[in-house]
C-alpha cells in the first residue's frame, strides 16, 4: 500500500509540561550542551596539534569526541529551544532527518567504543606487535568502518519508517523524534516494524556490549602476568573507557531491549545518554589520563604566549 500522509507537522510533548520546570531545564541544559561542544572540541583540537597524542588510542578518542559533538547536536539544540516554546513542533521530514542522524551517530559511537576496546586488547595482550597491528592505515580504516556501520544501520531504520502512513494524530510523546514514539502515530499496525527496529537497535547494542565485556575479561586475565606497575598503568588506561561504555550502554540497553512505554522515566533515561553522557566523556578521559592533561597544559601555555 502506498504511503498516504495527512500529517506534515508533528507536535512534541516535551520532557515536562510545567513552564517553570521547563525554564529551569533550559538554564541547566544550555551550559551542559556548551560544555559538551567545548570539551569534545578541545580533545579533537589537542589530538590534531599535539605530537604526543598521535597514537592509535588518541586517534580513536578524537573520532569519538567528534561523534559526540554531532550526536549531541542532533537532539539537544532543538530540545533546548523547545523548552522556551509554548508549542513544540517539527516537520515530518525534519523528524525523519533527526531519527536518521541520531541512529547513525549513536551506532557509530557504539562501534568506535568496540574499536577502542580492541585497541586496548592489542596494546596489553600483544604489546610487541602493537604498532604493526594498529598501523595508522588500520586505525583510519576502523574509524571509517564504524561510521559506515552507523550509516547502514540508520538507513535501514529510516527505510522502515518512511513507508508508514501517518494520518493523525500528530502528537509525539517525547522530547525528540525517535522510532517507537513515531510508530505510535502510524495509522497501521506496526508490530513487525517495531520488532525489526528493536532487533536492529537492541541487538547491535547488546552484541557490542558483550564483545566489550569479553575483551576486558581477556585483558584482566592477561594482566595477571604483568608486574604491579604494568597492571596499574594498563588498568588506568582502561578505566576511562570502561566508565564511558557503562554510561552509554546502560541506558541504551534499558530502552531498546524492551517494549516501549510512555513512562516519564523513559524520557529521563533518554536525557542521560543524549545530554549528560556526551558532556561527561571528555571529563572522564581528561581526569584519568596524564598525557591528555599534559597536552591541555601545553595547548593552554601556547595560547597564553600567543595572547602576550
UniProtKB/TrEMBL annotation:
Would the keyword Transmembrane helix turn up in this protein's UniProt record? yes
The membrane spanning regions, by residue number, are: 26-45, 96-118, 138-160, 203-223, 235-256, 268-287
Spell out the SUPFAM superfamilies in the cross-references: Family A G protein-coupled receptor-like
UniProt keyword annotations, A-Z: Cell membrane, G-protein coupled receptor, Membrane, Olfaction, Receptor, Sensory transduction, Transducer, Transmembrane, Transmembrane helix
Localization recorded for this chain is: Cell membrane
Membrane topology label: Multi-pass membrane protein
Identify the PROSITE patterns for this entry.
G_PROTEIN_RECEP_F1_1, G_PROTEIN_RECEP_F1_2
Could you tell me which residue ranges the G-protein coupled receptors family 1 profile domain spans? 39-285
Top-rank taxon: Eukaryota
GO cellular component terms listed in the entry, alphabetical order: plasma membrane
Q: Which CDD domains match?
A: 7tmA_OR4A-like
Name where it mostly resides.
Answer: membrane
Gene Ontology molecular-function annotations: G protein-coupled receptor activity; olfactory receptor activity
Q: Is-annotated flag, keyword rRNA-binding?
A: no
Family listed: Belongs to the G-protein coupled receptor 1 family.
Its protein name is Olfactory receptor
Its source organism is Rattus norvegicus (Rat)
Upper classification of the source organism reads: Eukaryota, Metazoa, Chordata, Craniata, Vertebrata
Amino acid at each position: 500500500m502506498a504511503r498516504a500522509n495527512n500529517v506534515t507537522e508533528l507536535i512534541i510533548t516535551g520532557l515536562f509540561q510545567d513552564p517553570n520546570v521547563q525554564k529551569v531545564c533550559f538554564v541547566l541544559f544550555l551550559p551542559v550542551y556548551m560544555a559538551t561542544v567545548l570539551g569534545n572540541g578541545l580533545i579533537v583540537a589537542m589530538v590534531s596539534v599535539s605530537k604526543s597524542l598521535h597514537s592509535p588510542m588518541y586517534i580513536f578518542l578524537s573520532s569519538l569526541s567528534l561523534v559526540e559533538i554531532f550526536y549531541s547536536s542532533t537532539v539537544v539544540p532543538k530540545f533546548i529551544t523547545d523548552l522556551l516554546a509554548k508549542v513544540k513542533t517539527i516537520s515530518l521530514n525534519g523528524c525523519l532527518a533527526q531519527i536518521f542522524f541520531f541512529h547513525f551517530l549513536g551506532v557509530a559511537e557504539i562501534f568506535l567504543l568496540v574499536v577502542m576496546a580492541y585497541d586496548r586488547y592489542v596494546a596489553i595482550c600483544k604489546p610487541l606487535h602493537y604498532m604493526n597491528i594498529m598501523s595508522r592505515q588500520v586505525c583510519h580504516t576502523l574509524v571509517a568502518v564504524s561510521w559506515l556501520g552507523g550509516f547502514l544501520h540508520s538507513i535501514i531504520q529510516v527505510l522502515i519508517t518512511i513507508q508508514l502512513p501517518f494520518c493523525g494524530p500528530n502528537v509525539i510523546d517525547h522530547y525528540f523524534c525517535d522510532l517507537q514514539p513515531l510508530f505510535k502515530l502510524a495509522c497501521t499496525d506496526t508490530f513487525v516494524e517495531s520488532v525489526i527496529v528493536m532487533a536492529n537497535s537492541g541487538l547491535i547494542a547488546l552484541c557490542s556490549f558483550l564483545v566489550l565485556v569479553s575483551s576486558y575479561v581477556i585483558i584482566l586475565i592477561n594482566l595477571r602476568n604483568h608486574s604491579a606497575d604494568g597492571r596499574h598503568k594498563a588498568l588506568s588506561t582502561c578505566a576511562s573507557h570502561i566508565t564511558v561504555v557503562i554510561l552509554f550502554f546502560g541506558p541504551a540497553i534499558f530502552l531498546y531491549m524492551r517494549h516501549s512505554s510512555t513512562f516519564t522515566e523513559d524520557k529521563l533515561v533518554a536525557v542521560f545518554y543524549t545530554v549528560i553522557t556526551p558532556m561527561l566523556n571528555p571529563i572522564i578521559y581528561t581526569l584519568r589520563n596524564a598525557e591528555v592533561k599534559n597536552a591541555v597544559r601545553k595547548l593552554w601555555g601556547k595560547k597564553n604566549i600567543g595572547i602576550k
